[in-house]
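B., you asked whether I could sanity-check this one before it goes into the benchmark set. Here's the sequence:
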Amino acid sequence: MLYIFRVSDLSGEAMKKRLIVNADDFGIHETVNKAVYRGFESGILTSTSIMAGGRAFDDAVAMAKTMGDIGIGIHLTLVGGLETVLPQAEVPSITWDNGVLCNNYVDLILRDLKGLIRAEDVYNEWDAQIRKILDTGLSVTHIDGHQHMHMWNHFFPIALSLAKKYKIHCMRVPDESLTFGLSFRPKSLFRFSAKNALSLMARNHRDSLKKAGIKSNDHFFGMLYGGHFHEQRMYDAAGKLEAGVTEFMCHPAANSQLMESTFHWGYHGEDELKALLSLRLKNELKEKDVELISYRDL
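And here's what the prediction gave me:
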């Protein structure tokens, strides 16, 4: 059996600092697509994750085919108020009363804990999402998940099974440092606690990925700052990079107001796009000898 290890397991790469900068939600809206294009062409963006059920999916696919060697991941989706790829009647346990996926991970997890989510529905919908993306001819580098639901304990085995089925050799592990962002303010404390709960869950899946020969990032930033990963925060995170492969997860948009009027997430996508285009940040990474890569380079 062939075992494939994380980059930091290889002595020749162990001392290097390598950074994947990934934009999530490619295909969800034209303004996100525009930001991904600008971030890759003129900034530090190296990778993006496409949503098969996004309303601007076709636009994203056409754009991706003009973007050279950008890494393209599959953004497995069970939340976000989006339509499913399969007809609702075929995956009823993961669609809500209005016929679309639920708005957020809390609602989904609560339904799953009540035993109301059928694993077969999750498998079939994610399988359809992957096939829809692969059928475009795009070269896929990795799998990740919208609101990280690919790491939820009941769903991770499904994501792993599909990664093996389609020979997708990398998967994001959103394992942010447990001490990062500690705050005792009530609102911040809830987000910090939720971040750590997910990080611990994701960390526990590393052995399964390794045994399956699927590579992953070693370190991660962007969960605590989801939708708010502005330039100073990204600059500060760049100063904390450790040896191995780190992923910055970001959510850029060319027009934050347009995104907010559609999805009401409170994201500041324009600020994140400015971070990706920041010459100050680019110079900082260069000065610290950080190599910008995508999951393809693993």
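One thing to flag: Strands lie at 17-26, 47-50, 71-76, 140-145, 219-221, 244-250, 290-293. Otherwise nothing jumped out at me.
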